[in-house]
Design a protein that fits this description.
The protein has about 220 residues and is of the alpha+beta class. Helices cover about 40% and strands about 15% of the residues. The chain is built from eight helices and six strands; from the N terminus they run H-H-E-H-H-H-E-E-E-H-E-H-E-H. The protein starts with 16 loop residues before the first helix and ends with a helix.
């Protein structure tokens, strides 16, 4: 049996209604400027910034507080090259065999294909792994709400990167098991997303697309 944990008083200072509204509006305007970027500058990013963002992601809530995630920060050019080669191999198969015609039509307008140069051009990659189960004292133990927990942590990571002034691309080559081999991660971990991170290249373009208005994504009862 796990021993009970101690509880301590919550550190919380209630803001005024005016501050609540002001802060929420400011955050909304900041997040409206977040865009997915596929063209990166080669300018290096301070490692402390990336580590801080990953640590912020680690503050996410998780099922039974088991924190079923692991992040791998990749800056080595040779490892980035290996990841690009492996990802493009899988993506070529996806475009030629796995993707439906309907899906290809949907992503065609975004001007994407199996070539993924951003995996090398971005100064850093962050691979996010979910820990499907854990090993304690040579015993396999279950983690709970793994997908939900890691999804929340990944959202916090993307938000932290944007707040810090960086751009990122949520990239999900499938299958991604090659990341376990290249990054030497154990079998109980599965990669769920790969984030190229950095500064946008000069002259970067992004699709002229619109997000759903709040009345289309919210129901108030």
């Amino acid at each position: 049996m796990n021993s009970k944990i101690n509880f301590s008083p919550l550190e919380y200072e209630k803001p005024s209604t005016e501050d609540l509204v002001k802060r929420s509006r400011a955050f909304l305007e900041l997040m409206k400027k977040r865009r997915t970027v596929r063209e990166f500058s080669g300018e290096p990013v301070p490692e402390e910034v990336l580590v801080n963002c990953i640590e912020a992601a680690g503050t996410a809530p998780s099922g039974a507080h088991l924190q079923p995630w692991h992040f791998v920060l990749v800056r080595d050019p040779q490892i980035k090259k290996q990841i690009r080669q492996a990802a493009e191999k899988e993506e070529r198969i996806n475009y030629e065999m796995r993707y439906s015609e309907e899906m290809k039509k949907e992503i065609e307008k975004l001007e994407t294909n199996f070539e993924k140069p951003f995996l090398e051009h971005a100064p850093a990659l962050i691979a996010v792994f979910k820990e499907s189960y854990r090993i304690e004292n040579n015993i396999r133990r279950k983690n709970y709400y793994v997908n939900e927990s890691v999804g929340i942590a990944t959202g916090l990571l993307i938000t932290a990167l944007h707040y810090s002034g960086l751009v990122a691309l949520p990239h999900t080559p499938s299958p991604m098991r090659f990341l376990n081999d290249i990054l030497k991660r154990p079998g109980n971990e599965s990669p769920i997303i790969l984030l190229p991170v950095g500064y946008p290249a000069e002259g970067t373009r992004v699709p002229d697309i619109k997000r759903k208005p709040v009345d289309k994504l919210l129901t108030v009862i």
